[in-house]
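Illustration 12: Glycosyltransferase.
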Amino acid sequence: MERKERDDEGEANVVVFPFPVQGHINPMLQFAKRLASKGAKVTFITTNSQQTKPMQVPSTSINTQAIEFPEGDKANGTEEFVHLFKTLVSKRLANLIEHQISSSSHPPRALVYDSFLPWALDVAKQFGLHGASFFTQSWSNSSIYFHLNQGTLKVPLEENTIVSLPSMPVLGINDLPSFVSDTRSYPTLLKMVIDRFSNFEEADWLFCNTFVELENEIINWMSSKWPIKTVGPAIPSMYLDKRVKDDNDYGLQLFKPESDLCIKWLDSKETGSVVYVSFGSLAGLTEEQMLELALGLKRSNRCFLWVVRETEQKKLPSNFIEETSEKGLVVSWSPQLDVLVHRAVGCFMTHCGWNSTLEALSLGVPMIAMPQWTDQPTNAKFITDVWEVGIRVSKDEKGIIRKEEIERCIKEIMEGEKSLDIKTNSEKWKKIAKAAVDEGGSSDKNIDEFVAKITCN
Ligand code: UDX
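Figure caption equivalent — predicted structure in token form:
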């Protein structure tokens, strides 16, 4: 269908459609809120599946619509899930957009879809909408998958390979996304991340939750070829700027945060004294690793707030919670942004998921990088060697991070030789991140441009 003239010229109506996991919902919902704050009318699509029971976004500025996907419950994470999601959800998305076009006085003009769902571009084009792919991981990571798609990086790689790619630091095998360093581990997910580049040249925009200053070189390299636009950090402004009161929380939690407990506990601790530990919404540790981490936290003799999701709690050593209750608090989910801005938090032991990385960096919290899988090893490389806002744990020959290493890293980041430089760098990045989304900042301008463009045609 040709993009047709609308009788509601001047309205910027946008549909935003994330892949239904927390690490994708958060940045895309925040982006949706930014669009709404600039006058766009936004419909945010949620998908019911195992992880996303019917959801409500507590925001008056954007409208939400659910696409039913109960079939996904049975096949979550498998190739079957990806196939079902594509075949069933693409039809339901098309129906939803068709309905909006026929019934709304403000029909949509653009579809911003998760880059994990490249087929959504076909739906956008079918109805004459602008199509914008939203990348929820760093451009540096995505560029590695781009090279796989192009054949300029070939896998599998030899054990001690050093990878040199345009406008990227030299990467050792342990700095590469896990799907690349071990192609046998998650072939379905590897295919999914590479497929993001199957039709990306046909998209009208390529958005990414990052900012130009953070990934300058790779962004220069990519933007000389494609319509790349940085729109991050996609973090509610209240956390970046305490003066803004009306934009708290991302707004849609798949897990229930133990907010009061965490904040009251942190309130009782000294400034900069707490180690915050979290591995995000998906990663799971082995029982052996969990034990070493628990013992390392204990040995550090520091206060710690550790997020252990309900499904992981059975791996905790017995009596650990009781034995460490004077120094530690274990919760099943935290209000992470409130934790990271709390004065009591001194460092963040993180799995380096892209959201956690951007959140800590934008809020000035030094990191202990403990990457688990997917894009996290590459994020860890940038945290330590490029932005210099953290240190990385070392594994032993069995691939385990031992208790002594955990203890060493906590001491190092809190009071070691590098700690002052890391704190200074963290403060520097915090300012740059805020400037990027402040009015007239590099990311803010890109969002303005997008809203202006879809308002005009
Ligand atoms: C996944 C991938 O694992 C990650 O590497 C990728 O970059 C994005 O998708 P996830 O593992 O959940 O995400 O990690 P992350 O990207 O850090 O996202 C987790 C989100 O949940 C963050 O926004 C964080 O603030 C939030 N969170 C996490 C909480 O609100 N409370 C918690 O206790 C833990």
